[in-house]
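Sequence of Putative S-adenosylmethionine-dependent methyltransferase At5g37990 (Senna tora).
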Amino acid sequence: MPKRTENLGRSEFKFLLKAIVLEPCDVTCSDGSCYIGEFKYGVKHGLGCYHFRNGDRYDGEYFGDKIHGFHFSFVRSAIEAAKKHVHGAITTTFDPKAISASSKSPIFIVDLGCSTGPNTFIAIQHIIEAIQTQYQSHNLPTPEFQVFFNDQFSNDFNTLFQKLPPNRNYFASGVPGSFHGRLFPRQSLHLVHSSASLNWISKLPEEISDRDCGAWNKGRIHYACASREVVEAYEKQFYMEFDTFLNARAEEIVSNGIMALQIACAHEGIDVHKDLYPGKDFDLLGSCFMDMAKLGLVSEEKVDTFNVPIYFPHLKDLKRKLESNEDFIIEKMESLEAKIQLVPNVEMYVSHRRAALEALIEKHFGEGVVDELFGRYTNKVKEFPEMMDLQNLKLDGLFVLLKRRLHP
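Predicted 3D structure, token representation.
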């Protein structure tokens, strides 16, 4: 790895970046901060480590010179926490002789909600290694693997494919489209995986944007801290889509095939009207929107019709829903002990939130709003630094392993 440790000013730093394309590098700036990681087209892009001058550090993913860490760090911690669960589940549940007509037949795997990597590659490698161990324990030849990477049409599949591990032991294909509907032929998949994607709903409840309805979520952008009618509308939409998801996978997964899911659930006993920690975060961001509306920077009507499409079910409700499903058997359901990476400063915390929500905000409000919004949000987070303590999330990562019942 080339190493450059000169004391660079901003202009020299930019010049250096422009000269580097697809090259790992170690750069020290004049303020004492240091970046060690990957560059693309002259900016931080890929995996890297940033050492702040105050001694803090950030290990994660960059996308177009911006921290892409909310998705990366939170999901990575969940995937690593689930590794032993996945391996153990495949060891006890994945029967090569029962799941495939021939030991020479390829195994078809899909990761739903893959984003742009690299978390998806880590999860897939864990799965393949566990399946290989199973075949070896049965004295069977290791099959070939076909892996499908799925996400919305808007996902940057070009970036995903550029990040594919060069020495991967599987064939790879991209499958764009919503996983709330059918994506594959009947009885074609042997294993389905999804991590931190099922909490996102594909469509917001219509009533929360209807000013004539009791569930109108005026002045807010999420169900937490909102009225009970808004909470119930989100809940209804989530479980309607979850049913659709399960029905689609029931068609696509072979008999005895398995599905490994990781879902964030709200702690039992909390009041989502006031205790759900991510809701406090969205409430603070919503107040920034309202401040901008009062100043005429955005339309108040636009604010009243914008809501974040994410829902965190209660564990007991989700378990009840899964137990009532006639197509799958619950083989395992356990909480994950994920180590959530602490956010060292306000700027990084805000960058995390911006990475997760920027595309949604720009789609609804148009360009030119995001910088002003998150500038105001940064100032408000400074007033409430407790927002940055992710240990207060009051969410549990849930690992669920489902086995497809025999097809009729």
